[in-house]
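Example record used in the benchmark description.
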Amino acid sequence: MSTGQAGTGVLQLSPEALRLARTGRAYDLSSGWWPGMPLSEGHPPFQVLTYRSPAGERNQGDVAFLQDNPLNYGWISELLMCTMHTGTHIDALAHTTCGPEAAWHGGHSSNKELGDFGPLNNDASELPPLVTRGVTFDIPGALGIERLGRSQPVGVEELEAAATRQRLEVRSGDVALVRTGTMLHWPDVTSLVECEGTGLSLEGALWLLDRGVVAVGGDNVALEVDPSGRPGDPQPVHRTLIQERGIPILEWVYQEELARDGVSEFLFVCLPLTVKGATGSMVRPLAIT
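Model output (structure tokens):
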């Protein structure tokens, strides 16, 4: 895994992980982003609005360096309005809270350490770059089906079946990805509804934690199974991984091409945007073989 402080520009890479890039082929694991795209419940819609345009600049005449401009030079820029939890993204450690003081990882209280511009610590600016060995668990492949069904859990039995089929060993420092088949027909809404709620169970998450993973990702909306099967504990995987153990979660990680080509391990590269006050980052992770 890479180490270093956000913003220093210094990365220390594992030679063992880099040696996984043998062919130089890179798989794009991102969802893409566009207005109207599928989102997790409770988040604001993703919007792209044109902020400046050549016609506006010319008509308004309010840009000083364009005053002498016989060539009619101009530019187009945009304003994004969205949550950082749109599409493929990684959750920072301040994302989930628990308890009467709404505390996030490290016992930091929302009552005392949440400002007008976001959490004062454990935000996206502290997310490390991930350049390490990645592994993907093809659960539908292990079960001999196209994709998992509604609220179908991925537990220890399913992870072990996939590991056996793929001859896969999880190692300390890995990023573990779980494929449920949710994104098989991405972004068809009807197809997504048919897989709604499927995901990793708490037992499955603990199995991965016991093997020393540094991040866990899934190809679905919230990584974990819904309903959780634990009354009074709506998202135990988020609570355990992020809030208790300090392990980032990735969601909407596209893995269909990896499954198609039978790829189980790879060099995983994910560089979060270090936005101060954000509780996550949209990312475009790569699996390089």
